[in-house]
Write a sequence for this structure.
């Protein structure tokens, strides 16, 4: 497979899928419908993502009526059983292949990280040197595999992995394939360093996110 040039990559706007199909056990209710600064978490994610990509779909399982956003297709997992975040990645790959056959990659982001970088798609794209690479975000020495550009050609291999590997670890699957990481810097604020990939898993995290919303000057409803 010939290497992709950065010029080629910049000409591509990827399809994207928001992963909102998890069980949210620690939160106790679907994260997509949580209110942050007067807006649902899902609406914040879509608003931040939409300017960066060609299209946005939403991966939801069972909460579509409550959390879907008009104008964006809602897609359920293509494999049953709530098999973890990689099931959402597989769903994104299948959706992209069916709706945007010219796209080599699909961008995925989770629904619980409302401050992710506004240049996420561009920087991941620019980092790729091979068409088959997975481009993954990194910050503060932590990998964020659910903020990544995934090659749609990996769908069959990923489905086999999901249905045969008992652990289904995202990092382990990435390490099986060509990949590149992109280090996103921490933000300096008056209240200390802030990780743009701060994610909300618990009610306490949601309260902390409200505080960061004000510190960072993010728009509220």
């Amino acid at each position: 497979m010939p290497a992709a040039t950065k010029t080629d990559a910049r000409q591509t706007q990827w399809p994207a899928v928001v992963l909102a199909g998890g069980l949210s056990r620690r939160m106790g209710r679907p994260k997509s419908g949580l209110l942050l600064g007067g807006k649902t978490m899902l609406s914040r994610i879509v608003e931040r993502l939409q300017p960066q990509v060609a299209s946005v779909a939403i991966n939801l399982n069972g909460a579509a009526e409550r959390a879907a956003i008009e104008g964006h297709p809602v897609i359920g997992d293509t494999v049953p059983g709530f098999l973890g975040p990689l099931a959402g990645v597989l769903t994104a790959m299948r959706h992209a292949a069916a709706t945007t056959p010219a796209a080599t990659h699909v961008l995925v982001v989770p629904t619980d990280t409302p401050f992710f970088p506004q240049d996420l798609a561009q920087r991941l794209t620019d980092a790729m040197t091979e068409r088959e690479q997975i481009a993954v975000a990194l910050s503060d020495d932590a990998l964020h595999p659910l903020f990544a550009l995934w090659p749609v050609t990996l769908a069959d291999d990923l489905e086999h992995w999901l249905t045969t590997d008992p652990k289904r670890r995202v990092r382990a699957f990435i390490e099986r394939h060509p990949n590149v990481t992109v280090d996103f810097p921490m933000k300096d604020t008056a209240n200390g360093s802030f990780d743009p990939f701060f994610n909300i898993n618990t009610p306490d995290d949601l309260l902390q996110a409200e505080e960061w919303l004000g510190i960072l000057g993010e728009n509220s409803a």
